[in-house]
Amino acid sequence: MSDYLPEGVWIDIFTRLQVKTLLRCTSVCKSWYSLITSPNFITSHLNRTTSNNDNNGSSPLIITHYTNTLGKIKCSVHRNNQSFDKCANFDFPIALTHAKFKILASINGLVLGFYGMVMFLWNPSIRKHLILPNPTIICKSQGSHRDSFGFGFDPSTNDYKVVRVVYRVKNFCYVFPPEVEVYELRTHSWRRGISDGEFSYCIAKHTQQAFLNGAVHWIGYNPKVSVGVFRNSIVLFNMKTESFGTMMVPGSVELEQRLSVTLVGESLSLINTSCFTFSAWVMKKYGVVNSWTKIFEIKLGSLQGPLRFRGNSDVLMAIRNGDLVSYDLESKQISHLGTNRDRKLFYFYVDTYMDSLVLLEGSDRILERKGTSCCPTSG
């Protein structure tokens, strides 16, 4: 590494640098490249970045939106402050021919997205993406099916996982238990998961998820409870044990059809959107049903629902003309953030942005073993 400084000192220096600078450092010499692309360093750098963001009190936000007039997806990073300053732009890694795409989640700077039938992982910080292999559970020969996905991180193996829950459909009804398979980034492959014979909850395809305490959370319902009645519950999948669990929602939203999960800070939250209002609940103590607390309810008007909470009193929302605004829950004032210049945007995805090296080491390792395309993208 160096005749003058021990490796531990270099690690301390490098973990303080931004990803853009570190990528340049990998070209200086082989020893720097070997250090910066190692799994241990990538984890150390991520931990320091996470700690710095926590100390600053507000992480940057990445906004992904589809513009109809240009026929392309725009990605930008903004400081999560009052002026909402833009600090970076990224090109979407896949050429689009239509608007059938969806971003499911972002964990530690790694984004899981869908484009048609293609599933991909993308780290905007290092301009790399990875196309996932086709799932192994195929239902064509046995009739139609529905599937749901979740994305999370397993700290016990320091690995990123995608869980796929596959429901076979017979006579317009779900067949239980569903089949489960899990994708692991470290092996770049799918494997069969443990199918829980007692699990009888339906999770909608591409429904919004929340990753917290090592588990993916979705809104699901148990069709066996009452035929024709959707009784909501929170369904969770633990990434370490690869097992399912459930939590009850407040009774007042148990039958609501437009309920979703999100995070408010580090707390699990529910969002209920109706034709005229949206309201939010927070679970003050994780896993304790009695700790659900309704924190606000507002009239939508020209607003189209929440995209992201900012601190304690602001919510990022879209309005009907496609603009992005910040709504102050205390003053009830709307601040336009100037993100929509052509007024033709009709899809937003907003999440916390993490400057990370995740996928840098993994992509090279996967290339060597699988021969899979993991392409640097321009931008």
Topology diagram in text:
Elements: H1 7-14, H2 19-25, H3 30-36, H4 39-56, E1 61-67, E2 72-78, E3 86-91, E4 101-107, E5 110-115, E6 118-123, E7 128-131, E8 145-154, E9 159-170, E10 173-184, E11 189-192, E12 202-203, E13 210-212, E14 215-221, E15 232-238, E16 243-248, E17 259-264, E18 267-273, E19 277-283, E20 292-299, E21 303-310, E22 314-319, E23 324-328, E24 334-336, E25 345-352, H5 360-370, E26 374-376
Antiparallel strand pairs: 1-2, 1-25, 2-3, 4-5, 5-6, 6-7, 7-26, 8-9, 9-10, 10-11, 12-14, 13-14, 14-15, 15-16, 17-18, 18-19, 19-20, 21-22, 22-23, 23-24
Strand order across the largest sheet? 4-5-6-7-26
| Number of DSSP-assigned strands | 26
Largest sheet: 5 strands, antiparallel
Rg over alpha carbons? 21 Å
Overall residue-averaged pLDDT value: 84
Q: How would you classify the helix and strand content by structural class?
A: mainly beta
Tell me, briefly, the overall form: globular
What's the N-to-C terminus distance? 31 Å
Q: Count helical runs.
A: 5
Strand content: 35-45%
The level of helicity is 10-25%
**Low confidence ranges:** 362-379
Question: Which features would summarize this protein structure in a list?
Answer:
379 residues; mainly beta; 5 helices; five-stranded antiparallel beta sheet; single chain; 13% helix; globular; 26 strands; disordered C terminus
Give a brief description.
It contains 5 helices and 26 strands. The protein has 379 residues and is mainly beta.
Describe the structure.
- It is a single chain.
- The protein is mostly beta strands.
- The chain is built from five helices and 26 strands.
- The protein has helices spanning about 5-15, 20-25, 30-35, 40-55, 360-370; strands at about 60-65, 70-80, 85-90, 100-105, 110-115, 120-125, 130, 145-155, 160-170, 175-185, 190, 200-205, 210, 215-220, 230-240, 245-250, 260-265, 265-275, 275-285, 290-300, 305-310, 315-320, 325-330, 335, 345-350, 375.
- A five-stranded antiparallel beta sheet has the order 4-5-6-7-26, with helices on one face.
- Strand 19 and strand 20 form a beta hairpin.
- The two termini are about 30 Å apart.
- The relative contact order is 0.15.
- Residues about 360-379 have low confidence and may be disordered.
